[in-house]
Automatic annotation (TrEMBL):
Keyword line: Membrane, Transmembrane, Transmembrane helix
Compartments, record wording: Membrane
Official protein name in the record: Sterol desaturase
Principal cellular location given in the protein's record: membrane
Signal sequence, start to end: none
Source organism, top-level taxon: Bacteria
Length: 354
């Protein structure tokens, strides 16, 4: 089994390297076929996109935050949380929403203004000649494919899972839990630094467009408003649904990832890792498309751990007995524990033997 898993991992990583290389190859061919003449730059938008530039002016600073709050209010008003947003759930969601807005800006600022000039001296804006479509293509793949692997490894490596389990502990879907993460998972979000590096190299405008489009897709996939259902309901829209659900994350595919069981044929927390693009799951065989929604969300082993343990583990550990966030407890057993007959209570043993 281990040999098969290693072989699949090697194959998937090889395919990933090829995908990473595609935009680089496309940009190279564009430059080569143009005899080294740059006909356009990413610094200015293509003419057919100029009309939407004003809408992006403040979206990166406060626009997306307002969008999340408004959508969350609509969800609450429609009663879509089913009275589950109480106690520790409310605390961890609010802290996870606010804290990154205080923690991440100085971290990213230090990385962009101090670390990158030191690590990559004299390389600022060296990719400013790249056309907008090339920068967009490059960042969209580099950002989202890297996040796919970051997400996938946090599900498949037991130690890493404890940094991501906070996101899956919520027994509901929606804007309230969209930002729910352990702070270490957030700070070491690998693609953030990759995108910052590409921005430093001169791809700031394409990076902004990727950020905004990706944010709307991922927020829509987490929302408790199932905006994709009409595409499954009406036959005339089925061709669009077929393309859409394989290209990007939708509520149906991402809700399945947050299901508390995979035994119903709908839940698929061992896959559907894609964030903006579901295409990665299609390519690597980790996707499940059913067009159905799970009946329940979260984790069967969830013990409603304290908000500080969920957000700040391993600095603060849970006091809940048996919790994966408590001292000396693994999140996922590496191998099943052997049970001897001496450990089985006599009444149960008698029933089994009879």
């Amino acid at each position: 089994m281990a040999v098969v898993q290693n072989s699949k991992l090697t194959r998937d990583l090889s395919i990933s390297l090829l995908i990473y290389a595609l935009p680089v190859l496309a940009i190279y061919l564009y430059f080569k076929l143009g005899n080294g003449v740059v006909s356009e730059s990413h610094v200015t938008l293509p003419s057919f996109l100029e009309f939407i530039q004003p809408a992006f002016a403040n979206i990166r600073t406060w626009g997306l935050t307002v969008f999340m709050i408004v959508l969350g209010l609509i969800e609450f008003g429609a009663g879509l949380y089913d009275d589950q947003w109480t106690g520790e759930e409310r605390k961890i969601d609010i802290v996870s929403f606010l804290a990154p807005k205080l923690i991440l800006p100085p971290v990213i600022a230090f990385f962009s203004l101090t670390a990158l000039p030191y690590l990559l001296p004299n390389l600022a804006n060296t990719l400013s000649w790249v056309p907008f479509w090339g920068g967009f293509f490059l960042i969209a793949i580099a950002d989202d494919l890297t996040q796919y692997w970051y997400h996938r490894l946090h599900h498949q490596v037991p130690f890493l899972w404890r940094f991501h389990r906070t996101h899956h502990s919520a027994p509901y879907m929606g804007m309230a839990m969209a930002s729910r993460q352990n702070f270490i998972y957030t700070i070491f979000f690998s693609q953030i630094y990759l995108t910052a590096t590409l921005t430093y190299l001169g791809l700031g405008l394409p990076a902004l467009f990727v950020l905004v489009i990706k944010s709307f897709i991922t927020l829509g996939a987490h929302s408790s408003i199932a905006w994709d259902k009409p595409f499954y309901k009406y036959r005339v829209l089925h061709p669009i649904a077929w393309v859409l659900e394989r290209l990007i994350s939708t509520p149906a595919t991402h809700h399945a990832h947050h299901a508390d069981t995979s035994g119903d044929g709908v839940g698929h927390f061992k896959g559907n890792f894609g964030n903006m693009f579901f295409l990665w799951d299609v390519i690597f065989g980790t996707g499940l498309i059913t067009r159905k929604f799970p009946e329940s969300y979260g984790m069967k082993s969830y013990k409603q751990e304290e908000w500080y343990a969920q957000f700040l583990w391993p600095i603060f550990k849970s006091k809940k007995e048996g919790s994966a966030l408590a001292d000396g407890v693994l999140s996922v057993p590496l191998k099943p524990k052997a049970v001897s007959f001496e450990e089985i209570p006599a009444p149960i043993l008698e029933q089994v033997q009879s």
